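Example record used in the benchmark description.
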Amino acid sequence: MMENKNKRSDFSYRYLVDKLAAGETLQREEWRALLEDTDAGHEAYLQKVAETVTARNFGKGVYVRGLIEISSYCRNDCFYCGLRRSNRQALRYRLSADEILACCEEGARLGFATFVLQGGEDGGQGDEWLAAVVGSIKQRFPSCAVTLSVGERPEAAYRLFREAGADRYLLRHETANALHYALLHPKEMSLERRLDCLRGLKALGFQTGAGMMIGSPGQTADCLLDDIALLEAIRPEMIGMGPFLPAAHTPFAGKEAGSAAMTLKLIALMRLRFPRALIPATTALATLSPTGREDAIRCGANVIMPNLSPLAVRSKYSIYDHKACTGCESAQALKLTEDMLARIGYHIVYGRGDYEKE
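Model output (structure tokens):
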């Protein structure tokens, strides 16, 4: 009797995975069944199908983006983030325009065709200043793409960035469940405000990135189901998913880290649902697991972001504890990245890697 039950379960799981791979979506309870299934054979099947779908759309190439962490100041007080304004132990810095351009010079020398400027919501790097930096980068490196990840800004600021030449904008929603959002953020922050920003970015023509934090305190399967529903509604060009990692001197300092296995499952599922999306193998996953980056690529991730930030500040951009910031995380160690990818049958693609509609 048990054997027949297992066969029915296997058929159902594979049926749902194959349904996604065929370009169909699932009902909420079908998504739940996939999320809650922990059978190792099922997970291996999901990974295999996701890798096949990735190869069909992108071959065996993985795009590289040069990450520049431009500021560790932030006006926000998110409970999970080491850069929160209430963290008096955080080491603060902000790069000058000349320092950012120098990072881009180094990235161009190494072959990068995309620069990602990431930072806290820093009033010391105002909207007009940042737009001017984007314009300088585009003037000096006209064939390169510029991605911004600097949080919630007024629509006028996003328009200014777009007019200056910014191509992409990353703004992870972290959670699409309003009650869960309230557990992770102070009262002055709003999920609806975050979603308005995402809608505004899409309307302005940015290649827009959303995504969630896996395993954050208070997260349930229903929270993740809400995340999937949101991604289906806004259809972002980029989907960033990484595990929650605790940060010292924050309200969640002693909490348990998120699950690498669940993060990898969601990468695979989102690859099937959004076959042309740009999905990074995140630093958080590489921090949680020594093989996190390789595992993510096998599950459908197709972007890595080596660090171009000045060596002197890399450890100061501490959004969580023990952040990986050397080895394959470093742009100057690209040979390690090339070797890692070669071991699993992949290779670096240095082009812009723009999103292509399905």
